[in-house]
Amino acid sequence: MRLVQGIERCLALAEKAFLFIANSLLFAMLVINFINIASRLLFDKAIIWAFPLTGVFFVWVIFFSFFVIYRRGQDVAIDILTRRMPERLRAATEAFVAVIVIALMVLVLAQAPVLVPRQVGTIDLIGIQRYWLAVPFFLSCFLIAIEFVLRLRSSIRALLDITDDQKAVS
Questions:
Q1: Tens of pLDDT, residues 6-58
Q2: Alpha-carbon torsion 79, 5, 67, 92, what sign?
Q3: Helix axis angle, 50-71 relative to 2-43, nearest 10°?
Q4: DSSP states of 46-88 as a string?
């Protein structure tokens, strides 16, 4: 139980950190583009690195937000059917979904050692290696896998509690 609480605290901290990073990157994009527009207007000169840096930040915002969206349950979920299911079937469905998400995240993470070395070369005008674009994605996938392991545990416990309750009533 303490382990689960510790993991939950770490996930909550990661959620806050990822949200802060994503918001900071959005703000940086706004500032960079504002300065670029002002430079064009006032000095008739563009900041040539503004567009590629904004592109990198945009990709990072999406990937850092990926975990936050799943953590907060703000992803697109069609739960109109599961809400009407009996408790036991709902718990089983939630467990099944958790297993699918975990399998998908493991599949993605298993590809990381293959994909990262293929992303060679620097991004023009910025000078960072291309593989840095994917690092937040793999971090989010790892954290989502852990999140769904906890959800799977919760679903299984709920399923077992429901079963025990039904046995007690009989």
A1: 999 999 999 999 999 999 999 999 999 999 999 999 999 999 999 999 999 99
A2: negative
A3: 150
A4: --TTHHHHHHHHHHHHHHHHHHHHHHTT-S----TTGGGS-HH
Q: In which residue are the tokens 């309750």 written?
A: 165
Distance CA 69, CA 62 (A): 10
pTM metric for this prediction: 0.86
CA 160 and chain centroid, separation: 29
Cβ 163 vs Cβ 87: under 8 Å: no
Distance, in Å, from the CA atom of 159 to the CA atom of 154, rounded to the nearest integer, reads: 9
Neighbouring C-beta atoms of residue 34, cutoff 10 Å: 11
Distance CA 23, CA 104 (A): 27
Amino acid at 44: D
